[in-house]
What we know:
Blueprint: H1 2-15, H2 22-28, H3 30-46, H4 50-64, E1 67-68, E2 73-74, E3 79-81, E4 87-88, E5 93-94, E6 99-101, E7 105-107, E8 119-120, E9 125-126, E10 131-133, E11 137-138, E12 143-144, E13 149-150, E14 159-161, E15 166-167, H5 173-186, H6 200-228, H7 246-265
Parallel strand pairs: 1-4, 2-5, 3-6, 4-7, 5-8, 6-9, 7-10, 8-11, 9-12, 10-13, 12-14
Antiparallel strand pairs: 14-15
Amino acid sequence: MFDRIKEDIASVYNRDPAARSNMEILFNYPGLHAIWCQRLANKLWRSNWKWLARFVSTLARWITGVEIHPGATIGRRFFIDHGMGVVIGETAEIGDDVTLYHGVTLGGTSWNAGKRHPTLEDGVVVGAGAKILGPIRIGKNARVGSNSVVVKEVPAEATVVGIPGRVVNAPAIDKDQKRSKMAQKFGFDAYAVSPDNPDPVANAIGTMLDHISIMDEKLTSVCCEVSKMGGDVCEKELPEIEVESEEFIEAEQKAAEQREAGMHSFDPII
């Protein structure tokens, strides 16, 4: 038990820079108090002491302002920052290293028995006031923006904002790899395909690479079919395109430096 408490305190230090001492955390973090009460209530719930479990959770709600149903499943290093107004339903499942801010609701959309509350996988962060409703799954390390209302499943590593919640930066690892491969084939991989480059020209070229990739796959399929029919139009290999001249490299580096200088010189206050 004490090992879990130490682990909880350590998780607060990792996620709240305002934490200054163990005593401060022990006595002044209602989110932790609510979690500790839920662990006791959950043990009572699983031991079929239903009424007593609900009574413990009710006391915890009076004291902390956080309502966690004793039937909810909660992982390790769970952290509720500020706490007030958080509601977690009976069939909610929360993984390890999950963070919730004040006003979050993990609620249901049905009065039917059974699974009716969301599942949050490891590392999920839910912003203040967000509502996640229904038996949906929020993928590993996903982020839910403040005041969002999420009613559909969210993929891992994605960020969701708005009402209803929409994914604004779904992971595109496969897409980035395909773009990089196609860019290398056509000789301008040094420009336009960096996933952290906000340049609109780069985004346009990236879209063009997606189109070229699809056309390349279709052309390959056509060549295979023509070859089966005895044709020889696809026997010649396309020449390799190489852009390795010093002039091109210098121009690309200069353009990158100009973009970086422009970003550093931007003043949003003006």
